[in-house]
Each structure stands twice: as C-alpha cells, then as structure tokens.
Specification:
Residues 1-102, 246-286 are annotated as: Disordered. GO terms for molecular function: DNA-binding transcription factor activity, RNA polymerase II-specific; E-box binding; protein dimerization activity. Residues 73-85 have a biased composition (Basic residues). This protein has 7 helices and 6 strands, in the order ββααααβαβαββα. By secondary structure, the chain is α+β, with helices and mostly antiparallel strands. Strands 1-2 form a two-stranded antiparallel sheet. A two-stranded antiparallel sheet has the order 3-4. Helix 2 (131-149) runs antiparallel to helix 3 (158-165). The longest helix has 34 residues, at 85-118. The protein starts with 18 loop residues before the first strand and ends in a 31-residue tail after the last helix. The structure holds a DNA duplex.
DNA sequence: TAGGCCATCTGGTCCT
DNA sequence: AGGACCAGATGGCCTA
C-alpha cells in the first residue's frame, strides 16, 4: 500500500478499507420510506469483495430478496438493478473518481487552513496549530481586532490577549502569550528581578503593537502549575460560570465556550519551541497533565530558537505589571 | 497503552 | 448522472 508523508494510505489505496457491512432496512418515523442503515463490523477482511455493496455481486446474481434469513424482513423500495460487469466497472470508476475528488477537496481545505495559520499572530512552522485550534484562534483574532477597531481595547491590552485566548487550549494560549510577548520586532528587556533570580517574565517594548503580557494570578480551586501562577487561559474556566464576569448570553458576542481541558504548560515562545531543559523555569513535559496532545507532538522538534535560553521565562512566570506594559 | 490528531474511504444527501 | 459537501468509521502516527 502506498503511503504519503504521514504514513497514510494514499493514491491507489481506493477500495480498500477494513469495513465489513450489512444493510438493514429501517422504517422511517413516518413509516413511509425505508432508511438504509449500515452496521459496521470493524476489522474484518471479508469486505474486500463487498465494499461496493450489493452492486458488487457476481454478474447475473439476483438481489438477495427473499433469500438468506427467512425471518429477515423483506427489503422495501425499488428492486435493485442487476449488476452487470459493465455496471461494476462504472461503479468502481465512479468511486475511484469520487475518492480522488474528496482527497483533493480535503487538500484544498487544508491549504486554506494553512493560509489561515500563516496569518495568525503566533504563526509557527515548527509548532503547527491543530485545525480546531487554528479556527478558534482565528475567530478570537477577528473578535479581538474588531474590538480594537471599535476602540474598546488596545492591541497591547490585557483584554486583547484575553479575547485572543478565549476557548483555546492551555498550550495554545501559552503559545499565543509567548508569541505576543516575544513576537517579531519586539525585544526583551531583562528586569532587575530576573537578574536576581526572581520569577519574572520578559518585558516587551516596541515591537509591532502587540506587547502583551499574560496574566499571572493565584487561583484557588483551579489546577495550577507548580510554580503557582496561571496565565490568562485559566480565566477561561471562569467564563462559563453562571453569573460570572465572563458569562456569555449572546451567540453573537465574542465570548467563547470555555475550554474544559486541563491546564498544560507553555511549549513555544516567539514561534519557536521551548527548550526541553535549558531554561531555569522549564518544566519537563512529563510533569504536565496529559492534554492537548496535538501540541505536545510538536515537542519532538528541537527548535531553532531565536533567543538564548536564559532569557526565556514561561508566560506563567510573568508577575502582573499593571500599568507598566498593558494599555489598560 | 491511551488519547489526540490526522488522512482517507465511503455512503448519503442535495443540487445542477 | 455526476459533482460537492458532509459525517461516520477506521487505522496510522506520535507523545506521555
């Protein structure tokens, strides 16, 4: 079997699946026309001569009407046409073409998704956002920019970051936080507490108008990383709470249902991956709760990093510097 | 080994 | 009839 770069079956793999199926006729609620229900039996190889359904019967074989299990209800609906060799071939060809079209369609969809990724504020070629996270982030990005345009918030504000992180998984939130902190054009100013070994994040000055620091706060009752601070993504757990500050009432507003997954650590900074050990604040992956494996997968990549490890501090580490960096 | 993500195949439905 | 779109199912890959 041919395999593409993902190790998946590709061209030429048509008509091969591991499904064995049977047709059942079930009356629709109005009892009018029957609904064909396929019951899958995974793993069987007996499908190989059957994947074309009843149309793949031996030439000249009549439909199984009245055959087989005598207790089985008679098939309703129009009698199927006899399957000739020519029909078999046409059916196969049609299926092969349909598969190719479907592949092509999905590739187009993926290309569009890749284009979307490329304009996301934390686009990274080494740490690819999953499809669902790309869509969530895109939505948040639009909302955040809209609010910024309306003058409600600055792109440097904490609110902007919060909007951006709404509904995202913790790793993605951290990725966004990291990228906005150390994004292109920005530079990191080492603060005194950093030099003294204190816990503090980098301060971003200048840049592209997105110098945003993730929020750091204590949160009783919520799972928290060992270092005792949380970034803005943890606010998401409060958003869905009844009467909470982030409760959403309108499907049209920019609130996003909270992401229910457990918190996970930062993995990327400035579009690159966090080094596995070099940062004094780096927490090895096995210390994290298992979630959002998609981004973990990217941890196998070993960067390249654009900044020295020593200057990196996970977003969690940045204590609030209200009034210093934020726009609000 | 479990769980997340993904590509692919497939049949159904709708539309032209 | 055929194409586009969709959702379900499946298996591969990867990481913890």
């Amino acid at each position: 079997m041919m395999a593409n770069s993902y190790g998946r079956p590709s061209e030429g793999a048509e008509l091969v699946s591991s499904l064995e199926w049977m047709d059942d006729d079930v009356s629709s609620p109005d009892g009018d026309k029957p609904i064909k229900v396929q019951r899958y039996r995974p793993g069987g190889m007996g499908h190989l001569g059957r994947e074309l359904g009843s149309e793949d019967m031996e030439e000249g074989e009549e439909e199984e009407e009245g055959q087989g299990d005598g207790n089985a209800p008679k098939r309703r609906g129009p009698k199927r046409k006899r399957m000739t060799k020519a029909r078999q071939e046409r059916f196969k060809a049609r299926r092969v073409k349909a598969n190719a079209r479907e592949r092509s369609r999905m590739h187009g969809l993926n290309d569009a998704l890749e284009n979307l990724r490329s304009i996301m504020p934390c686009h990274s070629k080494t740490q690819k956002l999953s499809k669902i996270e790309t869509l969530r982030l895109a939505r948040n990005y639009i909302c955040a920019l809209s609010e910024a345009l309306e003058g409600d918030q600055s792109t440097e504000s904490r609110a902007f970051m919060e909007t951006l992180c709404e509904g995202l998984s913790q790793p993605t939130s951290n990725l966004v936080a990291g990228c906005l902190q150390l994004g292109p054009g920005g530079f990191v100013e080492e603060r005194p507490e950093d030099r003294n070994g204190g816990r503090g994040g980098p301060t971003v000055l200048g840049g592209v108008g997105m110098a945003v620091r993730p929020i750091s706060y204590s949160s009783p009752g919520l799972p928290s990383p060992p270092y005792g601070t949380l970034d803005s993504a943890h606010l998401l757990h409060l958003r869905g709470m009844k009467g909470g500050a982030y409760e959403s009432h309108s499907p049209n507003d920019c609130n996003t249902p909270p992401y229910d997954g457990p918190p996970t650590p930062p993995l990327s900074i400035g579009g690159n991956l966090v080094p596995k050990q070099s940062s004094p604040h780096y927490l090895p992956p096995h210390h994290y709760p298992p979630s959002s494996m998609g981004l973990y997968q990217s941890a196998r990549y070993e960067l390249p990093l654009e900044m020295p490890y020593d200057s990196y501090h996970p977003p969690h580490m940045a204590p609030p510097q209200m009034g210093t960096v934020y726009g609000d």
